[in-house]
Amino acid sequence: MKTSSTLIIAVLMLGNIAFAQKSITKTGSVSFFSTSPMENIEAHNKQVNAALDVATGDFVFKILIKSFEFEKALMQEHFNENYMESDKYPNATFQGKVTNLSSIDFTKNGEYDVEVQGKLTIHGVTKDVTEKGKFIVKDGTVQGLSKFNVKVADYDIKIPKAVVNNIAEAIEVTVDVKMNPLK
Amino acid sequence: MKTWIKIGIGLAIAGIIGALVVYKFIYNKPHPDYETETADFRTEAKQLFSDFKSDETAAGQKYNGKVIEISGIPTSIEDADSMLIVVFAFEEGMFGNEGIRVTMLPKFNDPGKKISTSETVTLKGFCTGFNDTDVILEKGSIVK
What is the ipTM, given to two decimal places? Predict the structure, then answer.
């Protein structure tokens, strides 16, 4: 009886530890910027789901394409209907791992360089990616910051010839996700 | 003035007017006003969430990109980075609470803070999809 009670308590405690090791946000920010001789285009999405398991380094993102906001309504329409086909491919995802987990102390405030490896899926096309970024650890929260380029051709995003000069071949993506421990 | 000059000037004026019209009404057209848009669907908050949980693809084809009016009792109001989010939570999952998250239009941030978490409210918003945990409605407004 005593042994089984101890076992149950131990299992419950382990469950709590595993639970506490996950940091999440549902209001992460991802934006992109395209610069070309014709015009600059930028869009912002502040509804990004991100989760980091600080014990294993597992790192996932889920981004709804229709949540990207543009200054111009026409650009937003073209982005959804013509380029990203957001009715057919409603989200973009990243699923990967922090590869240098041992060099990050999540219990100590500070800035840490990170490398993340995984699979990025955009427009239904999945590619292996390795990107560098930074984690800012502050009082239990982990802010992930990164800036990298995505080539539109890699993800089978077709730009009509009429506007090919308006959109850069490589789009600069900026990620800013402030994750709090899951309670 | 010679006829061909008159025609040329006329064509130039027509071209300038045409360009201005394209710039104003097409290239620079305003974003939809989601507060005054008529809802494409009216449903209970729980029903909308259930539709996405039971068949994400079918629900996405039906609701994504549409204006939806939902009714229900909110579980919390979140104030995050100048965004006010009204949350209707129905389940617990890997990201904590799962349900519907309505990000309010800025003009509804103050009235949104007064929304009761013990009474039914009806909100309207633009559905951008389901992210495995929540149905996201944006540009939210209070209907009643």
Answer: 0.83
Residue B65 has pLDDT above 50, yes or no: yes
State the first-to-last Cα distance of chain B, in angstroms, to the nearest integer: 65
Please judge whether B31 and A76 are an interchain contact, meaning their C-beta atoms are less than 8 angstroms apart. Answer: yes
State residue A2's pLDDT score: 47
Q: Is A74 on the interface with B (CB under 8 A)?
A: yes
The reported pTM is: 0.84
Judge: A182–B29 Cβ closer than 8 Å, yes or no. no
Is the pLDDT higher at A21 or at B78?
Answer: B78
Cβ contact, residue pair B136, A62, below 8 Å: no
Shortest distance between the Cα of B74 and any Cα of chain A, in A, equals 17
Any A CB within 8 A of B65 CB: yes
Output the 3-class SS for chain B: CCHHHHHHHHHHHHHHHHHHHHHHHHHCCCCCCCCCCCCCEEEEHHHHHHHHHHCHHHHHHHHCCCEEEEEECCCEEEEECCEEEEEEEEEEECCEEEEEEEEECHHHHHHHHCCCCCCCEEEEEEEEEECCCEEEEEEEEECC
What are the tens digits of pLDDT across the range A44-63?
Answer: 999 999 999 999 999 999 99
- B76 in contact with A at a CB cutoff of 8 Å? no
Q: Is residue A111 over pLDDT 50? A: yes
Is the CB of residue A97 less than 8 Å away from at least one CB of chain B? no
Contact A27 B29 (CB under 8 A): no
